[in-house]
Structure formats: structure tokens, C-alpha cells
From TrEMBL:
The keyword Endoplasmic reticulum does not apply. Its EC number is 3.5.1.3. Gene3D superfamilies: Carbon-nitrogen hydrolase. It comes from the Eukaryota. It catalyses: 2-oxosuccinamate + H2O = oxaloacetate + NH4(+); 2-oxoglutaramate + H2O = 2-oxoglutarate + NH4(+). Residues 1-245 form the CN hydrolase domain. InterPro entries: C-N_Hydrolase, C-N_Hydrolase_sf, Nit1/2_C-N_Hydrolase. This is omega-amidase. SUPFAM superfamilies: Carbon-nitrogen hydrolase. It is an enzyme of class 3 (hydrolase). The keyword Hydrolase applies. PANTHER family: NITRILASE-RELATED, OMEGA-AMIDASE NIT2. It comes from Platysteira castanea. PROSITE patterns: CN_HYDROLASE.
């Protein structure tokens, strides 16, 4: 099946972001994509100073538009992420819609991006955001998909749980920056893919040098052999790739690590 990643240029005008995102979703659908994914914070600039201003309920304006365009195009739409307000708290949340427009999954970013690399970048999502507390998976006629957002990708245990639960594709809307992007963006994706013998896709906003937070870009798809099979540059674009589940099955048969794990010695478990 065909997967499309929309590396969207995100502006400060929410209505423009929504309009352009929906237009690119339609374009991807017209080119045969069955699953379409948007980037992290696709409807607002990324930054702790923006989250409260742009936050919405779910359902709300942005997710309503996503529901409508998913139904119009009869696709599975992974809605990147938006700042979500619920019960007086803010979350970084990905909503997924099915071909009938129904909400299939809602993933709140589990691991908040609180880092300090001296002289390069300091960022603290927890100043404004609360963490999610659950794994998020959804079924399609093609395969089961696991969701994470950006920093979630650094935590191998989360991907391993998804693999154990039968996911064959992991999708991470993310916005690595100009420090962590060149160093770890591709490396982490290839690691998660090889460790769990599944496909990993990441969807970044396009790079905007004038933004307060400059995203690395380079939305990517990695296959279960650890090969990069599709990759964007820094600019706004749509990346297409065909996900071959037969290849996944062959790799798991050739190197059967999933059945060779020593569960008598170690294990990773999902607590809730």
C-alpha cells in the first residue's frame, strides 16, 4: 500500500496551515496514497510560547477539517499533532481518522521534550504541556500501526511494545531541530526499524529558517532491513513510498529475532 508523508511549511496563520494541509492530503490521495500523515504541530508554530494560543479541544476546528478530508478522500489520515486543551491541561496530540471520517486513535505525546545541550539548544515542553499516559495503535486493512510523537522515538521500549502488539508500521510525526536532527533523526529511525523488524516513518514540518524553532525536515521512511527507502529534503514536499509487507515477512523469517528473544531472562511490558 502507498504511504504519503506531507512535509508541510507551517506558518503563524492557523487557517492557512489547515487549508494547505487539506490541499496536500487531497493531492496525495489523488496519487494513490492509502495512508497519509501530517507533521508534528502542523496547525501552529512549534514552541512553548505558542501552545496555549493555538490549543483546541478534540473534536475542534482542526480535527473537524481532518475528519472531513479523510472521509472525502476515503483514506486513513494521521493528523500530525496539534496543541490540545482538555480539562485545563495542554497536550501535544495526534488524532487519526479513518476513511469514514471517524476518529480511530488519539495519541498524546508520552515523553516530553525537556533537553539542554549547552551552547546549542535548550527546550522544555513540560513548561506548558502535560504528558500522555498510553500507547496508541490502530488497525487498517493493510496492517496495524503504532503512533509516537517526536521525542517518543528515542525510547526503544515503546517501539518494542508496539512490535509485540503486532504493529508492522510505526509513524512518528516529529520536529527534530538543527542540533538533534543531523545527529540522531535518521539513526533513531533505523534503530527502531531494525530492532523490531518493521517499517518506521517520520513526518517533519518543512524547515523555516526564520522560525523561533527551526525544524530539521527530512521526513523519512525506513524499511525493516534498516534501509532508508524515501527521504525529503528541507523544503515543503510530499514523500511517497510503497510499504511492502511481504518483504517484512521475509526479513522476519530470515532473521527470526522475535521468536529467539530470551523471555526467561528479560522482558519489556506494557503497564497500562
Amino acid at each position: 500500500f502507498r504511504l504519503a508523508l506531507i512535509q508541510l511549511h507551517v506558518s503563524a496563520v492557523k487557517s492557512d496551515n489547515l487549508q494547505r494541509a487539506c490541499g496536500l492530503v487531497r493531492e496525495a490521495s489523488s496519487k494513490g496514497a492509502k495512508l497519509v500523515a501530517l507533521p508534528e504541530c502542523f496547525n501552529s508554530p512549534y514552541g512553548t510560547q505558542y501552545f496555549k494560543e493555538y490549543a483546541e479541544k478534540i473534536p475542534g476546528e482542526s480535527t473537524q477539517k481532518l475528519s472531513e478530508v479523510a472521509k472525502e478522500c476515503s483514506i486513513y489520515l494521521i493528523g500530525g499533532s496539534i496543541p490540545e486543551e482538555d480539562g485545563g491541561k495542554l497536550y501535544n496530540t495526534c488524532a487519526v481518522f479513518g476513511p469514514d471520517g471517524a476518529l480511530l486513535a488519539k495519541h498524546r505525546k508520552v515523553h516530553l521534550f525537556d533537553i539542554n545541550v549547552p551552547g546549542k539548544i535548550q527546550f522544555k515542553e513540560s513548561e506548558t504541556l502535560s504528558p500522555g499516559n498510553s500507547f496508541s495503535m490502530f488497525d487498517t486493512p493493510y496492517c496495524k500501526v503504532g503512533l509516537g510523537i517526536c521525542y517518543d522515538m528515542r525510547f526503544a521500549e515503546m517501539a518494542q511494545i508496539y512490535g509485540q502488539k503486532g504493529c508492522q508500521l510505526l509513524i512518528y510525526p516529529g520536529a527534530f531541530n538543527m542540533t538533534t536532527g543531523p545527529a540522531h533523526w535518521e539513526l533513531l529511525q533505523r534503530g527502531r526499524a531494525v530492532d523490531n523488524q518493521l517499517y518506521v516513518a517520520t513526518v517533519s514540518p518543512a524547515r523555516d529558517e526564520k522560525a523561533s524553532y527551526v525544524a530539521w525536515g527530512h521526513s523519512t521512511v525506513v524499511n525493516p532491513w534498516g534501509e532508508v527507502i524515501a527521504k525529503a529534503g528541507a523544503e515543503e514536499t510530499v514523500v511517497y513510498t510503497d510499504i511492502d509487507l511481504k518483504k517484512l515477512a521475509e526479513i522476519r523469517q530470515q532473521i527470526p529475532i522475535l521468536s529467539q528473544k530470551r523471555c526467561d531472562l528479560y522482558g519489556v511490558e506494557m503497564k497500562k
